[in-house]
Amino acid sequence: MSNKRGLFALSPLFVFVFVYLVGSLAAGDFYKIPLTVAFLIASVYAITTTTGATLKDRISHFTRGASTGNLILMLWIFVMAGAFASSAKDMGSIDSTVNLTLSLLPGNMILAGLFIASCFISISIGTSVGTIVALTPIAAGIALSTGSNTALLTAVVVGGAFFGDNLSFISDTTIVATQTQHCRMSDKFRVNLYLTLPAAILILISAAFGMNVMAVLTLGLLMTGIIGIWSGSYDLYGWFGSMGKGITGMGELIIITMMAGGLLEIIRINGGIDYIIGKLTRHVNGKRGAELSIAALVSLVNACTANNTVAILTVGEISKDIGDRYGLDNRKCASILDTFSCCMQGLLPYGAQVLMAAGLAQVNPINIIPYLYYPLTLGFVALMSILLRYPKKYS
After folding, report:
1. What is the pTM of this model?
2. Are 158 and 345 in contact (CB under 8 A)?
3. By the 8 A CB rule, do 265 and 65 touch?
């Protein structure tokens, strides 16, 4: 594939960035251009400019990307999360949790407490989305009660959620990274500790078991109904109404997610991801360069797919080939794949986790990004570990 065609395949992403970011900066307000409109314009552009297929086929490709199994599962999680958050809030559980948190933690420890709680939950259940669903409403409630910055407290939860996503033995990214690099989870975990401990300054013990996020949400939803009706917070119809309000409130988030999935599928079939992979692996030179290429590879593909598990799956075998060719440690390669994909996913305003947090906290996703200190710090530490050949044992 030619460079021109490869770059052109990525142009829908450039259109999205231009419409939303440049347009918002020009207007001086990130609420002037809805994300749905920016994705709609980029999606129409992607379908229109794709060649070699009929309009019907192009629309079919877009629809296929907007309705993959993983994406539909994510939409169901959004629906359940909206219903749970709204019914829990109307029942008064959010206010009670906020009051308990404020009574137990001094004012200067709220941010640290939220982060530690997010880290602990995420490493126990192995999913960043489940952690965000559980803690974001509480973070938003604390922000409202204390007059704090809602985007900041939401970002603290998101950062802690990716701590566990990166480290947990039951995280899908850990499983995929270790399988593609042919190493044991325990070995990859030890390498990861060298990166995450300096960033988080925490010593954690991984949980051995976890529960599916849909099961957690279903159980939580049933409990809000039972407790809410029993306590008189609402009757059966009030519970139904609260759930309906929460589901409706997730409408914009669902639309954005589907359009992002369709847009990225068009980029994929046009060769955009293959182009990125080819460019980054063409001039690899030495172990340091090989590790940097793996980090850049999974980060860029993650930016194009907005899914860290898919990104690792996409570049996993290529990364293994690079590692074998340059004599890299498989455990370090697995850690690089998992860490950089989580860092990139945590910083994407159109990634599922940030969109979910923004939807639950009712803030603009862009406003959360500047406060995502943990993903930024983890990315910096991981980059320095490559440049400085750290830890020596695995480098």
Report:
1. 0.64
2. no
3. yes
Q: In angstroms, rounded to a whole number, what is the distance separating the alpha carbons of residues 376 and 113?
A: 20
SS3 sequence, 307-323? CHHHHHHHHHHHHHHHH
> 251-269 vs 55-65: helix axis angle to the nearest 10?
120
| Dihedral, CA of residue 66, residue 69, residue 74 and residue 78, to nearest 10 | 80
**Distances, alpha carbon 322 to alpha carbons 45, 85, 289, 310, 375, in Å:** 35, 45, 10, 19, 25
Asked whether residue 143 carries a pLDDT value surpassing 60, the answer given is yes
Please state, as a whole number, how many other Cβ atoms lie within 10 Å of the Cβ of residue 389.
13
Give the CA distances from residue 233 to residues 52, 227, 238, 363, in Å, rounded to whole numbers and listed in that order: 59, 8, 9, 27
358: left (phi over 0), alpha (psi -120 to 50) or beta: alpha
Give the Cα separation of 137 and 77 in Å (integer).
Answer: 15
Q: Among 359, 368, 371, which residue's Cα sits nearest to residue 85? A: 359
| Dist. CA 278–CA 75, nearest whole Å | 32
Contact 162, 309 (CB under 8 A): no
Residue 94: partners with Cβ closer than 8 Å, 6 or more residues away: 88, 137, 138, 141
CB-based contact 142:114 (threshold 8 Å) = yes
What per-residue string of b and e applies to 275-295 under the rule 16 or more CB within 10 Å gives b? bbbebbbeebeebeebbbbbb
Q: What is the pLDDT of residues 203-250, one digit of tens each?
A: 533 323 345 556 766 777 888 888 888 878 788 898 899 889 888 877
Cα angle 33, 37, 40; round to 5: 155
Q: Angle of helix 213-231 relative to helix 236-249, nearest 10 degrees?
A: 140
Read off φ and ψ for residue 373, nearest 5 degrees. -65, -35
Q: What whole-number distance in Å separates Cα of residue 130 and Cα of residue 122?
A: 8
pLDDT of residue 193: 61
* Mean pLDDT of the region 191-199: 59
Peptide bond into 198 cis (omega under 30): no
Alpha-carbon distance of 2 to 263, in angstroms, equals 21
Burial class (CB in 10 A: 0-12, 13-18, 19+), 354: buried
Amino acid (one-letter) located at 264: L
Q: Which two three-digit tokens encode residue 233?
A: 């917070």
